[in-house]
Amino acid sequence: MDGSIAVIDALVREARAVAGLPASAVLDRAEVYLAGADLPAEVEVLDKAVGEAGWAREHRVDNDTFALLRAGTDARDAVAVVCGTGINCVGRTADGRTARFPSLGPISGDWGGGEHLGQIALYRAARGEDGRGAATALSAAVAGHFGRASVEEVSAGLHFEQIPKTRVDELSLVLFAVAAAGDAVAQRIVARQAEEIVSLVRVAAGRLDLHDTPYAVVLGGGVLAARHRLLQDAIEEGSRRIRRTPR
Length: 247
Prior knowledge:
It is a single chain. The protein is α/β, with parallel strands linked by helices. It is 52% helix and 15% strand. It has helices at residues 2-18, 40-53, 64-72, 114-130, 138-145, 151-159, 171-180, 184-207, 222-225, 229-244; strands spanning 27-34, 56-63, 78-83, 87-92, 98-100, 216-220. Strands 5-4-3-6 form a 4-stranded mixed beta sheet, with helices on both faces. The longest helix is centred in the C-terminal third of the chain and has 24 residues, at 184-207.
């Protein structure tokens, strides 16, 4: 909590300076959207902390998916999906209703995001190398990414902390590159990610009774902002399919 507030405070001070405002100026309103503000209890705690920081006379705190909605569309009926390190979705309607998900990772049913995709790429690479799974170009690509001769050496390096475990996240980029080159195993993982994103859109729109109403779909986060062609095409086709399905 303290670290989050400190980061935001530095940004507020920078914004004041750029705007030519005194360092002590109290703003009219602050809109603070944060990754990790997923459950009502978390939003409540953050809301209190932002109020105590005294940046503005009025403020609102919520999940970063709402920031994506604000940045991505003026449509009042809209669904936004963030797919970055993790994955999350929110929908809203013109009359103020919202649909959202806990977004706590696998324990709340989430699938995908850069961190998870990196783990899956390593998993498939290891099994492809030793024969427990289908052969895949991921095996050589993962080993090469870490400068090792095999995925087994990569696994050992991670186990003995010679390779920081946080670097597994980098493998999401390796996954998309291998998929784009035509590897069937990698392409199936990318297709599964697209299905998950489309599923989030479908469920959020359904909860808000939007399927018979024109609504915007906004995509953001590092995985989606990279516009990987295979992923983008599958999401667009899946979104069109939702709209064509009879209700």
